[in-house]
């Protein structure tokens, strides 16, 4: 496939153009997932993370961070409980410069092992020239966020991220462990309230993303983020609330 722009990338579209390779989906025993949830529910987020490395092969644990508004919360806990854990950052090519600066700052502060992943260049360039975020943000997110994760996902059994129930309607339905799209999702912060998060941030004096000070509560790509409470500033001209990574 040429990067000339003559072809359109296909991430689930029906044009017949080249499809991104998708890993073979694995299945997990629901009874095992239920047992894991029961075991981890009484634990604190820190204890859950420590326990994770007893129950899973540490080399098969994947952690992602968007280095968004309050990403320091999860990263600080992980850096203390599992200092050797790699942190994958999806570089969409559309981040605010302040996000890249925040990433640099947290990496230095907590000695993080950050690995950047991104879409194939010709596919990303297609979204640049096509301005795909304007007409089909799901497709743009699929190319720039979902596909880079799919490319590495099969190397891991469990995927940790910092979702919390109060953030969106979809997130309000999640448990600590979920079998989803061929991997086990692990949300150690899922039942942490906004007040508990803020108290932890204050106690440990964690730095916020610089854009929080000017009214942004949730921070993604420049094209799809405006100031606003909670996630109201994301894709604010469409019903979209999730980039697709966690669906
Ligand atoms: S958040 Fe917006 S610019 Fe970023 S990948 Fe999704 S649609 Fe594209």
Structure description:
The chain is an alpha/beta fold and 247 residues long. The chain has a single domain (30-213), classed as HUPs (Rossmann fold), CATH 3.40.50. It contains 8 helices and 6 strands. It has helices at residues 30-40, 45-55, 72-81, 97-110, 121-130, 132-135, 137-153, 194-203; strands at residues 61-63, 86-90, 113-117, 158-160, 177-180, 183-186. The strands form 2 sheets. The protein has a 4-stranded mixed beta sheet with strand order 1-4-6-5, with helices on one face. A two-stranded parallel ribbon has the order 2-3. A hairpin with a 2-residue loop joins β5 (177-180) and β6. The chain is globular and about 50 Å long. The relative contact order is 0.17. The structure holds iron/sulfur cluster (SF4). Iron/sulfur cluster binds next to α7.
């Amino acid at each position: 496939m040429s990067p000339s722009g003559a072809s359109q990338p296909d991430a689930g579209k029906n044009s017949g153009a080249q499809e991104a390779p998708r890993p073979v989906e694995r299945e997990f025993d629901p009874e095992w997932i239920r047992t894991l949830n029961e075991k981890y529910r009484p634990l604190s987020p820190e204890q859950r993370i420590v326990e994770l490395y007893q129950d899973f092969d540490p080399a098969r644990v994947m952690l992602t961070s968007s280095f968004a508004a309050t990403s320091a919360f999860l990263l600080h806990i992980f850096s203390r409980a599992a200092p050797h854990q790699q942190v994958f950052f999806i570089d969409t090519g559309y981040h605010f410069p302040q996000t890249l600066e925040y990433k640099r700052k947290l990496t230095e502060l907590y000695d993080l092992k950050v690995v950047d992943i991104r879409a194939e260049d010709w596919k990303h360039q297609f979204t640049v020239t096509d301005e795909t975020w304007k007409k089909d943000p799901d497709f743009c997110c699929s190319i720039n966020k979902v596909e880079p994760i799919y490319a590495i996902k099969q190397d891991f059994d469990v995927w940790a991220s910092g979702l919390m129930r109060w953030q969106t309607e979809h997130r309000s339905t999640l448990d600590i462990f979920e079998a989803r799209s061929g991997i086990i999702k692990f949300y150690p912060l899922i039942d942490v309230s906004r007040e508990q998060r803020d108290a932890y941030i204050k106690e440990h004096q964690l730095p916020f993303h610089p854009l929080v000070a000017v009214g942004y509560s949730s921070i993604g790509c420049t094209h799809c983020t405006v100031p606003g409470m909670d996630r109201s500033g994301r894709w604010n001209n469409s019903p979209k609330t999730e980039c697709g990574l966690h669906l």
